[in-house]
Amino acid sequence: MSQSLSVVIPVLNEELMIRPLVAALTPVLEGLALDWTVLFVDDGSTDGTLAEIRKLAAENPRLRAISFSRNFGKEQAIAAGLRHAKGDGVLVMDADLQHPPASIPEFVALWRAGAKVVMGQRMDWEADSFLRRRASDAFHAVYGVLTGGRLPRGIVDFILLDRVAVGAMNQLNERARFTKGLFAWIGFTTASVRFDAPERAHGTSKFNFLKLLRFGLDGIAAFSTLPLRVWSYIGSVISLIAMAYALYVFLRALIFGTDVPGFPSIIVSIMFFAGVQLLSLGVIGEYVGRVFEEVKRRPLYIVAEEIGPAQKDG
Ligand code: UDP
Ligand code: MG
To answer: Over 50: is that where the pLDDT of 31 sits?
Structure first.
């Protein structure tokens, strides 16, 4: 039992999931011949999640938890889990059984074979709504173009990191965290495990459309500056066209004399360029806002409470 594995699980209002989750995980982890712990990160739940965890942890020393003072978001919860986990390997997974415990032995086998990062790759998306799937496809297409396509489709936050990879993740202090992108960014020998995600076992998704949109923008802004730089190219092209047009108007006036210039074309071009300028300003605003968030250097999250044997292997 030399190796140890910490399972990090971010939870937000999952009171119905804690018990079935622990029941499903225990036999799988027991079968792995390693020293295991489960570390719940309670992301400011307002239901009975923490009470459930407390009850189970009182009877089972393998269960630990840290609890945030409020909801900070899943990305911050994963960051906290990676910092508090003490295992030689750390497995991150969702609480809703959409990340099947039955796949865990495959993760561990690849890790034991030498992979420092083992990524779960989701193959089946039927459990998500049609709109969410289309939005996700669109995001991946845009993200691929803007960042040079470093994020394979289907990579989710179901991942096993070796201690060295956890150390690398823990050096990343950025606030706007696009965890999937960071997992890919740290590098190391990587293997992947394919899995099918079933429907959520209880409750509903904690991500609505707006939250996902915000998250997608964070992801793009964190890994690409192309939206910022592209305006100088667009500006140059428009200036060239404007100069050519000015020359044309000038020559036309010399040859045919002046006529009354077209009023509609002026309105259209004013509106078009005002739009382009507002858009580019908005993009700059998105980045400046994020720079502001970063320079404040607030902590990523606030821990209100730790549950379980904190000193022992996590
Ligand atoms: N979660 C969290 N904080 C949040 C939102 C979600 O810790 O602000 C947790 C949630 O409890 C679950 C996991 O992140 O364990 C994935 O959430 P969910 O299943 O709602 O997302 P989806 O599967 O729809 O992407
Ligand atoms: Mg889910």
So the answer is: yes
Q: What is the pLDDT of residues 8-22, one digit of tens each?
A: 999 999 999 999 999
Cβ atoms of 69 and 303 closer than 8 Å: yes
The CATH number of 4-129+154-204+303-307, from 2.30.30.280, 3.40.1010.10, 3.30.230.30, 3.90.550.10, is 3.90.550.10
d(CA 41, CA 59): 18
The rounded Å distance from CA 29 to ligand 2 centre is: 21
CB burial readout 75-93, b (16+ within 10 A) else e: bbbbbbbbbbbbbbbbbbb
Please identify, by atom number, the ligand 1 atom nearest to the C-alpha of residue 41: 7
Stated pTM of the model = 0.82
> What pLDDT was estimated at residue 262?
74
What integer pLDDT is reported at residue 312 of this predicted model? Answer: 47
Q: Which ligand is nearest to the CA of 71?
A: 1
Domain boundaries, the chain: 4-129+154-204+303-307, 226-296
Residue with CA nearest ligand 1 atom 9: 11
Residue 15 Cα to ligand 2 midpoint, Å, equals: 14
